[in-house]
Structure formats: C-alpha cells, structure tokens
Design goal:
238 residues; alpha+beta; Glutaredoxin; four-stranded mixed beta sheet; two-stranded antiparallel ribbon; 9 helices; 58% helix
Amino acid sequence: MIRSTAIRRARRADPYRDGDVIDSRAPRFNQSVIAITSVLAVATGWWPLLALFAAQLAIGLRFGRRWCLTCLAYFELIQPRFGEGPIEDSRPPRFANLIGAVVLGAASLAYVVGLTAVGAALGVLVALLAALAAATGFCAGCETYRLGARLWGIRSRLLERVDPADLGSLTERAIVAFTHPLCTDCHELEARLAASGERVVPVDVSRRGDLARKYGIAAVPVAVRVDAGGHVTERIAG
C-alpha cells in the first residue's frame, strides 16, 4: 500500500486529467488486450467479442479514459505496481484506437451479414498489428498519424513561417521548439538543443494551444529553425 501510494504521487502526468499526454506503456498494454481478444474471437467464432471491443474503444475515445476498461486496468492496477513509463503525445495512439474501432466494427458487421471469411480476416489483421505494437512498440496507426501530420505540416502555409510577434521578440535566427512539459521526447529534444549552443525559443503547447492550432502542431515535439523574419529554413524534429 505504501509503495502504491508513493508511485501514484510520483506520477508526472495524471492519467485522467492530463489527457493530451499518456504513459507510453498504456497503449502497448491496450494493444496486448486487443490482440488476445481478437485472436480468441476469430479462433472460437465468438465474433461478438470484436463488437464489444470496438464499442469499448469508441466509448473510451468519446468519453475519456475513465470509461475505458483497459485504461482503468493499466492506470489502477499495472502502473501503481511498476511505475510510470515515458510520457508521449496522446494523439497518435488515440488515432490508432480510432482505426482499431473502425476495423473491429467492420469485422463485426461482416460476421453479421454472413461474410465470415471477411470478418475473420479483419479480426486477424487487427490482432497482428496489435501484437506487433505490443511486442515491439511499432504502432502502424500511430505512424500513419505522424506521417499524415508531418506531410500536412510541411505543406502547410503556416509552417513556412512563424510570426515573430507570436514569440515575443525575434531579432536573430533561432530554433522554435513546440513542446509539452510532461513529454519525455520533448525533454530529450530540449536537452539536445540546449547542448548545441543555439538559441532556442520554446513554445509550451499546454499553455499556448492557440499557437499549436495556428501552426498545425499535430504531435509534439516539433522544432524548426527560423531566420530573423520567422521564415522556416529547416525542420529539425517532428
């Protein structure tokens, strides 16, 4: 009990209040459960399990982690025992969950209309991708989100220039870093940039959500090198 309480107090991110970030181990735990459930559903023919998990993912996405059973299991049972893992932006795994909910829903519908082979194939696909994410950390849905965000960001007019007025004062070239105070990768990026000796202008997206929206920052960390006029000359991270 003492150990559990100590670990809870040591959390950097509240799992229910700090919804814009997440313990990176939580999605992997979720993917493990999805993989096992999907395999069980296909192997036994209990396809309603796919529908139930699709509904659970959708409910969690819509109403938050307190309504997500796997989230509750991780944050109330697993994390207190083993501690908090690295903190990351929650948007990529949320997008992956959305894809999972859609595909599991489609698999369930296929079973309902009698397309058993299609339903089984979709269930196996979800199981394989979920198992890959759980075992290796490579999340196809997360990478799809990041790729889309990066392509959109690079092509966006807004990321071609950062308005110096938004940064307080900018009289020379600098690196503009969009970060979050609880993000592990953001801390590593900030340390690396600080060690480079270059001038860094941090933008905390938890406080400046307006700038995150203005410049299309879909996942942190993002860092760009700008000249004195705010024109982006190089994308360093994100």
